[in-house]
């Protein structure tokens, strides 16, 4: 999945080298190239479906009618889209700005400094600075570098791999993780009630406060000389329970909705939230884990901060909850651990890439 930059240069190095043509490993298959457009043109398009914006201001309102309306909108978005912009989410904007500045400062360091934090997938060390190495037979690469680390629970962190520069990186990221973990509880509670379950049911099913892991991946998408040929991240669904995303207000996120790619607009002071495969499985498909991808561009570096809320890999069997399975609605997913679900997705992806493509 990741490798030493000795074998594959960091994407940032390629971007800053002055190349006019990207290496063939980054060029997407023809069937994808047919629908990769200019992200700045795509995001300006009006009309057509738009990713919903959910205002969480009243999610715990004392007025039951107002509270119910807020919660119903969130549940509806989770069932229809599986992704939404959250506003008035309770995380201070100044803290979010500091998180973004800290991540930006790390990626502003010279590459040789960042390499001191390089991960080593071969030895199982996935935390740290890396770039995507193709894990499928087609040999495709993505136009991004990243920094990946576990940020919550605090007793499971390995602070030795965290950036030391800037000096406040650990402080601001830790505070953000604590607040995000509380937000995850609120969201899971509403989603539980939306299924007719007890408020704490989904949280319990994904590991609770002790076991649910928050993994942060800072995605760095450098300028690309041929953005119409590449993707920052290929089409996928998240395996997490929930994913929360900050970005630097440069567009790039696309969602596959009703058979078409929809470009998400940049909503100020929002956090993008995805429903992941884990919640889709538990809900027996009532909540959607939407297919999405990331476009790149020539003009601006795009950075996003994705936090994946993941259940423990082996301890919990993921399957549709018994209350949601009936004769009319049989289980849509077989029982698997989180680790098995991940392996199943990787295997399917590899198998798909081995299928010969039709000649163009």
Explain what you see.
- This is 2-OXOGLUTARATE (2OG) AND FE(II)-DEPENDENT OXYGENASE SUPERFAMILY PROTEIN-RELATED.
- Its cofactor is L-ascorbate.
- The protein has 360 residues and is of the alpha+beta class.
- It is 31% helix and 19% strand.
- The strands form three sheets. An eight-stranded mixed beta sheet has the order 1-2-10-7-12-5-4-3.
- Helix 5 packs across helix 7.
- The chain is globular.
Task: Return the structural class.
Answer: alpha+beta
- Tell me the strand order in the biggest sheet: 1-2-10-7-12-5-4-3
Instruction: Please tally the β strands and state the result.
Output: 14
Largest sheet: 8 strands, mixed
Number of helices: 11
The quaternary structure here is single chain
Give the distance, in angstroms, between the N- and C-terminal Cα atoms. Answer: 29 Å
Features:
360 residues; alpha+beta; eight-stranded mixed β-sheet; 14 strands; oxidoreductase; flavonoid biosynthesis; metal-binding; vitamin c; L-ascorbic acid binding
List the helices and strands and how they pair.
Elements (H helix, E strand, L loop, with lengths): L10 H6 L13 H4 L5 H6 L8 E3 L8 H17 L2 E5 L5 H16 L2 H4 L13 E4 L13 E8 L16 H26 L6 H5 L2 H4 L1 E9 L11 E4 L5 E6 L5 E5 L2 E4 L7 E5 L1 H6 L9 E3 L7 E9 L6 E2 L17 E2 H17 L6
Parallel strand pairs: 1-2
Antiparallel strand pairs: 2-10, 3-4, 4-5, 5-12, 6-11, 7-10, 7-12, 8-9, 8-11, 13-14
